[in-house]
Amino acid sequence: MLAKEGIRGMILDTAELGAGRANFYAKLPGTGGGRAIALVHHMDVVTATPKDWTVDPFAGTIKDGHVWGRGALDMKGHGIIQLMAFIALKRAGVPLTRDLVYVGNADEEIGGLGSRTFIERHPDLVKEIEYVLTEGADTRVEKGKVRWFGIDVGEKLAWWKRMVVKGTTSHGSVPLGDNPVERLVPALNRILAYDTPIRLTPPVDRFFKAQARDATGQERIWLSDAAAALETRRGRAWLLSEPERNALLRTTITPTVLKGSDKTNIIPQEASVELDIRLLPDEDTVAFRRTLERLIADPKIRLEPIGDVAPPYSAPLDTEMFRALERVAGRMLPGVPVATPISAGASDRPYWANAGPICYGIDPYLVELEESRYSVHGNDERLSLKNIEFGLRLYVETVMEMAGGRNGGTAERE
Ligand SMILES: [Zn+2]
Fold this sequence. Notes:
This protein is of the alpha+beta class. The chain has helices at residues 14-17, 76-92, 113-121, 123-127, 180-193, 202-212, 217-224, 226-230, 233-241, 243-249, 285-296, 320-332, 349-354, 369-375, 385-403, 408-413, and strands spanning 9-12, 23-28, 34-42, 62-63, 66-68, 98-105, 129-134, 140-142, 145-152, 154-155, 157-158, 161-166, 170-171, 252-259, 266-267, 270-279, 301-305, 313-314, 338-339, 358-362, 382-384.
């Protein structure tokens, strides 16, 4: 498609990614007024069970004003919207001051191998990029009302640990005083009794302020000034009562896998517990580790890492791109607040951001919360043609704000 438009695309990293897989890169050169903007998506999707769908999940059927198929929302549809914007800008022949880059990555759904390979193998291409726009936002539409437009600026850091203690195995009937279970349980209890500090980060504060806009009464007051609410007993209790909000206000420590003996009358050689720890994006991992060790207070208990830890990711709010997105959202969705959620889940953004670019997650469409809940990674995923038009406009206008050679003030008045 790009070749037909006179744009050279590059299929990359085929050997590293394996059969049938690749990364993709293309560029519209700018006149050199600034560093590149990259429209980035992942090309892979999760699986689908055809019998649970009302259409073939891999046919891309257009029906009832929607494109139906696995990936329509997560995130082939988003990638196609980016491609349409890329081609539209080329066809319009608008001289862009910045380079515009289009990237498709493989394998986001299974650990980000595609983006990690791309970043590692093409530092020259990554170095040119100042901003990455990709998935990850939480624009909220409920009962036809757009409650907020999300610019996602962070991700909590999955910092998984295993607490392990060794002891002396023996018969349960004659305890020797070196049972690892008896050492592990009190240490785990000390961790569970610990209230991780509540910390209102600027993006979360902004996110709550956006939620306040259509709240009422006391809740509106608490959401619009969460810092003050957290100082009061009732305000604090209310803010923390919703699990999603609680998770945005603090690091969480959740014990999940617990292992000791597999027989009642055997004292095991070793006992362990796995902790699903989710750090706030800007948490100091060294200091947090010290806190954990202080709580454990037992030199025989080791803390082992589980899996790879992604780099921390947190995007600044005070950037040209953020302001451009705010202006475009303001024009397209008058009166709708811009919110800055951070995500408790994981995406490719930490890898990109760690390599230099400032990354934002956006939804280039307005999809009912209910609908995305059942269809993303579920069944009958679909994207309306109206939303494709919306997304195309959102991307084209954002690129024009950033690289159209006008300053934002002029664009705002148009
Ligand atoms: Zn995705």
